[in-house]
Specification:
412 residues, mainly alpha, two-stranded antiparallel sheet
Length: 412
């Protein structure tokens, strides 16, 4: 099971004072010679901020990750241990606002289904009703696809329109499978508050069921038996929770299902009101399938419309369904201080071409989106900043004799 490559905000590299100290240890003067006048090889190139090219943008508004900028103009596979090659200069200084990609796969490798932290494949099998409702979604969508295919075969509608509808159904089913089998944002047992949360708050919430840190806007799902980051609700039609990590797939499923229902109703409405010729009449046997499918499309259109408005309201206000119900019950909706959810925290920063596809998003800052941080991730960031720097060569001392002041203190 492949993990999503999450990007995190990088820290600035070593200060200029540290680099000047390294160059001072080499014993070179400003003209490229030693202090005694003898010529010496040139020192390591001093790091200079390279001109920063404009961010790679798609449609002029979404900043995307550019792999060429991530290497910072430095070849990490460059081998100059034997001294046969000239030393390589320092990497380019990371500009403010740049990020590094943390592609470490920390997901469990066990081929097991479940919602526990040790399961390799996320699947909720404890809710029988949810499993039935989730299977019913596939059955109804496949029924509608078969009906439209029969209309195409009997020449009731053009082949091109049948292909469009089947493609929409395939995308809806793919998004449904992705929503059901994707971890919605379960909080690991080792989760800790992020640095920003530690600076802003003196105390943090703990889940009484999981006995772990409970990020803001997260809730414990009694069906999944896990705390879910930015949990909106538990959807029985998905047989899964809707959280920060699968909100994109859930929203795409609603959009594709809504489009399928509207498209089918448009086809049936045009045939019912404007068809006055025998060439466009539906086959008598297929008519019975179309009648049931019409009722199905009306119900799906109304339901997905209300759910789309619910999700859009949550994105614009930053308040999920569970939090909104709690605030309405206590009459505290006017005291809400949540901020709207940016679209990059839902669809990621890969670009607009990935928005309609059920692929996992790459978040700009995974810790901010999920509301927690992992000690392992912080340790990888520390190693990244420490070991991804060139180590200057240590110059041999001119003499191995200890100073006289030290020799006088040593025992005879």
């Amino acid at each position: 099971m492949s993990s999503v490559a999450h990007s995190h905000r990088g820290h600035p590299p070593a200060m200029d004072g540290d680099r000047s100290y390294v160059s001072a240890r080499t014993g070179y003067t400003g003209n490229g010679s030693r202090a005694d006048g003898s010529l010496a090889p040139q020192p390591l190139a001093q790091p200079q901020p390279a001109p920063v090219p404009p961010f790679y943008r798609i449609c002029g508004c979404i900043e995307c990750y550019n792999p060429k900028r991530e290497v910072l103009e430095y070849d990490y596979t460059y081998d100059d241990v034997n001294g046969n090659k000239p030393p390589q200069g320092y990497p380019r200084i990371r500009e403010r606002g740049e990020y590094y990609i943390d592609s470490y796969n920390g997901e469990p490798w066990s081929c097991s289904f479940g919602t526990a932290e040790s399961n390799g494949i996320w699947f909720n099998s404890s809710d029988q009703a949810g499993s039935i409702m989730s299977a019913l979604v596939w059955l109804l969508l496949l029924y509608s696809s078969v009906t439209v295919t029969l209309l195409t075969i009997t020449e009731g509608i053009p082949v091109s329109l049948g292909m469009v509808y089947n493609m929409l159904c395939a995308m809806a089913l793919a998004c449904h499978a992705k929503t059901s089998l994707t971890d919605p944002g379960s909080v690991p047992l080792a989760a800790i508050p992020s640095e920003r949360q530690r600076l802003m708050k003196d105390s943090h919430s703990m889940c009484g069921q999981c006995q772990t840190f409970k990020p803001p806007l997260s809730h414990h799902c009694r069906i999944c038996n896990r705390c879910i980051s930015k949990m909106d609700h538990h959807c029985p039609w998905m047989n899964n929770c809707v959280g920060a990590n699968n909100l994109k797939h859930f929203l795409l499923f609603l959009l594709y299902t809504w489009t399928c229902a509207a498209f089918a109703l448009s086809l049936f409405g045009w045939n019912y009101f404007f068809c006055a010729d025998d060439d466009c009449m539906f086959h008598p046997i297929v008519v019975h399938l179309v009648r049931f499918m019409t009722l199905l499309c009306v119900g799906a259109f109304l339901f997905t419309s209300s759910m789309l408005m619910n999700v859009c309201y949550g994105l614009m206000t930053g308040i999920g369904t569970i939090d909104r119900l709690k605030k309405k019950a206590t009459n505290t909706m006017g005291q809400s201080d949540e901020e709207p959810i940016p679209l990059k925290d839902v669809f990621g920063i890969q670009g607009w071409h990935t928005w309609p596809l059920p692929v996992d998003p790459i978040f700009e800052d995974f810790d901010v989106v999920m509301g927690y941080c992992m000690p392992q991730r912080l340790d990888r960031e520390r190693q990244f900043m420490e070991y991804k720097r060139p180590i200057p060569e240590v110059q041999a001392a001119g003499s191995m004799e200890l100073p006289k002041c030290i020799n006088d203190l040593l025992p005879v």
